[in-house]
Amino acid sequence: MKKGNVLIKNAAELVTCSGFQAKKGKEMNDLHVIPQGAVVMEEGIIKAVGTTEEILKNYNESDYEVIDATGKAVLPGFVDSHTHFVFGGYRAEEFSWRLRGDSYMEIMERGGGIINSVRATKEATKEELHRVGKKRLDSMLSFGVTTVEGKSGYGLDYDTEIKQLEVMDTLNQEHPIDIVKTFLGAHAVPKDYKGREDEFIDYLIEQVLPTVAERNLAEFCDIFCEKNVFSVEQSRRLLIKAKEMGMQVKLHADEIVQLGGAELAAELGAVSADHLLQASDQGIADMAKAGVVATLLPATAFSLREHYARGRYMIDQGCAVALASDLNPGSCFTESIPLVFALATLYMKMSIEEAVTALTINGAAAVGRADQIGSIDVGKQGDVIILEFPSYKYIPYHIAVSTVEKVVKKGVLVFD
Ligand code: NIG
Ligand code: FE
Questions:
Q1: Is 305 a known ligand-binding residue?
Q2: What is the per-residue DSSP string for 304-332?
Q3: pLDDT digits (tens, 9 = 90+) for 150-191
Q4: Residues 192, 283: one domain?
Q5: Hey, which of 57, 192, 196, 324 has its CA 20 to 30 A from 374?
Q6: Which residues have a beta carbon within 5 Å of ligand 2, which is an ion?
Q7: How many domains does the chain have?
Q8: Is 330 annotated as a binding residue?
């Protein structure tokens, strides 16, 4: 029997999320569920999808590792399309300051926040970053994540940004989870560049981006477009250069202040704009029209005690919405997919079906891979999860607890 040959049969629900591009608006409710479903994978690629009866007529069980999913739901693996999982140090102290009433931006403005993690990440060796990165990936896998986006951005200088991206490269080769890398050199303004933000953007464009692009160290370029961080004009300048160098773009947009990040994402044809707590009606309409995925990060709003992004409104306006954890050491130290799911359904008024779409095919679209992952369709990578329960409806119902029992990655059982 070849590696990556698996046949999963008798699934109470085979939730295929079928599709090869982002689902917008009403389409987000279509999960394409096959009762008593089965899926066949050969050498890690999905070969056939159907009812168990149909599949067993055409495929011989002895050719495969067989998983009997009686009484269980089977879904595509989750795609966590926005994380900052490679970082040094921790900021527990800042969390306690926030409990006391300090805001995230106040802490940042007095020299804490992201800059604190930058210091610790500069000091950390590659081995140390690799060790903590692996631990975080293992945890994500247990939540059913089979592809994760990871950002640099705790270096803000050539050496450390490259170090973070190289650590992700190594982890990508070693770990079952696929890692999509994003260059976020413009995550904060380094101390030496305070008041000279334009020069810092020049530095990134001239000194760092060319290496990232030439060495293919990241597929995406991202920026923290926010009041007192980088302006819309600075963001436009950096992202246009990144596109010229062959990268796709994303933005941390309209998180704390309504700055026009959503509008900029649409103007630039960004693959996604993320956070969007303050996005304007116009920005949302522009994103829907331009096909920019709106990546919402409710665990961050929860952790910062902000109001939630307008997920319901965005979907009703025809946007494609993705959900992600935003795992990072400051605003949101969690990789908990069940928490994200609970918040999206309970507080952002998304249906359970929309939340499943947002974490599968739309997450895949947010990392530019909707043609390869995010659904159980013939020809796609064999990345699926098996729940302990018979329906996807149990995911938010078992509040903030993982319902994932098994994970199959590229046709191999990697978590059980
Ligand atoms: O997505 N908003 C900016 N960046 C991260 C937070 C990073 C940090 O605080 O370390 C975010 O929330
Ligand atoms: Fe982020």
A1: no
A2: HTPPPP-HHHHHHTT--EEE-----SSS-
A3: 999 999 999 999 999 999 999 999 999 999 999 999 999 999
A4: yes
A5: 57
A6: 326
A7: 2
A8: yes
